[in-house]
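Lab manual, section 2.4: Encoding a predicted structure.

Procedure: take the sequence of the chain (328 residues), apply the prediction step described in section 2.3, and record the output as structure tokens. A sample record is shown.
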Amino acid sequence: MRTIDHDASGGTEHDRATRSGAPLIPLPRRSDQATLRSASPARATSAVPASASTGVADLLRGPVRPARVLMSVPAAVYLQVPTERGTDIVGVLTSDAARLPLGCILFRPSNGRPLVTLPSGAPAQVGGGRIVVGDLVVRAAAWWDPRPRLPSLRPALLPEGVRQLRNTLYGEGVPHSAFTLPGLPAGPGGPLAALRGAVRRADLDAALRTATRLIGLGPGLTPAGDDVMAGTMAGLVLLGHPAADRFSAAVFSLAAGRTTELSRALLRHAAAGRVSGEYAAVLQGLVGERPLGPAIEGLLATGSTSGRAMALGLCTAIDLVDRTTRVR
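Recorded output:
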């Protein structure tokens, strides 16, 4: 990323970005120029550097826009930003938070302290290379790509890796039908059972119909039902299923008015193949590009249910790709 060669601070931010594990990708110099033009000298010197997702590059590098706080917790603050196409979400996340595709990752952990102490609805600003929320000023000093680079448009997955993912998720020797998620109805009439049935029949349209039952289902800012569908959508896109775009567009259209704004934003990113760093690590492990075991553990440890739900979505996508595109 363009972070160091054109930055006045020399190698310091490069070292921080390297230690954070963020891949560095070059972006045009105008990002720096816009930042300098729009920031006052006092704020420019006190800004906190962060590694920003290219999924929110247009917002960060664009004109300064008013925003408001959606939610603030010790490891993250989420901002709603009005745009020409509706509302986008940008997150400022500490290094120990999930690496979401809409996030700017700080080079420090939360240590149990909130990033800001502002209530929901408090004003903020996004644009000109910066995020300003309360006394916190964050500058995009490095960039990372939330769409993992895989070996090909339709990558082959390691069979042993797929078995390892399934066994870790479901439990070795445990039937998939026994898998449950908190907040989602279990049993043969539940939505997860319907999704498994659609996969067994290699019926992509039936799998899509389960989205009407899953979107918005479950507690929290990202309901478990949404996370299952986000994992499925992103998996289909990244594994090259020919109907991935149609499937993802249909699921995303269902989300309007049925789920939270944060979850809907993450579904939009999933439809473009932009995923969390933890999800991307599992995919890279499945194609043999990194150790798989630690990647699976990292994903499953994400949130109270999100990581397990996303992993279930990935397994669903793997099965749908295998069963609906296999040469018969």
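Check your result against the sample. The CA atoms of residues 163 and 304 lie 24 Å apart.
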